[in-house]
Design brief:
Elements (H helix, E strand, L loop, with lengths): L16 H8 L4 H23 L2 H18 L10 H34 L6 H20 L3 H12 L4 H8 L3 H19 L4
Helix pairs in contact: 1-2, 2-3, 2-4, 3-4, 5-8, 6-8, 7-8
Length: 194
């Protein structure tokens, strides 16, 4: 004799994460609290294994549960278990935090390297500048007085070509010619390609 035995459903048994997520998607704060109590230790454990830092792990866990509250309606029970969905979300969020942290360290390192004063030999730098200056002065001495005057006003004095023309009281075209001829002669004297 087989009789259908009534199946006893324990009304005090905790609801499954899927059931809780369904209720959370409807804005049920009590269901969210139950879901948190059920899964927060596992989520925190996973996040902490990845991040190591306890304070950051707690912060990321809070972010995950906030995301669960906001996106519970996106859970599709046909695609997998609710706890798997939540743990996947936790893993992704922890990895994102690691990447962001690494990107911040990389950026700080680049800025630190950029801002670091580069050491150089002051004596060698001074000698190089002096030698180059002597080369330029020797080459300048090969210019005509008119070319030298125009070059010194334009390149050492910082005057524009029209200002040089005004100072020397000569046409602008003449200044341009003197500068061009002077620069060609300097190039030839110094052996530099312009």
């Amino acid at each position: 004799m087989t009789a259908d035995l009534p199946t006893h459903v324990d009304e005090n048994a905790p609801a499954s994460p899927a059931e809780l997520l369904a209720r959370v998607s409807q804005g049920d704060q009590g269901a969210f609290s139950e879901l948190y109590d059920q899964l927060a230790p596992r989520v925190l454990g996973l996040v902490k294994r990845l991040l190591i830092d306890h304070a950051q792990s707690e912060e990321v866990t809070q972010e995950i549960f906030l995301e669960i509250w906001q996106t519970a309606s996106r859970f599709d029970g046909q695609r997998g278990a609710a706890s798997t969905w939540i743990m996947t979300m936790a893993h992704r969020r922890a990895v994102d935090r690691i990447r962001a942290s690494q990107a911040g360290r990389d950026r700080d390192n680049r800025i630190g390297l950029r801002d670091r004063a580069v050491e150089y030999d002051h004596v060698a730098e001074t000698v190089e500048v002096r030698i180059e200056s002597e080369r330029v002065n020797r080459a300048m001495s090969k210019l005509t007085d008119l070319q030298s005057q125009a070059v010194r006003l334009a390149y050492y004095g910082g005057y524009s070509q029209s200002e040089v023309a005004g100072l020397l009281q000569i046409p602008l075209g003449t200044v341009k010619t003197r500068l061009r001829d002077g620069m060609i002669r300097l190039r030839d004297e110094m052996g530099v390609a312009l």
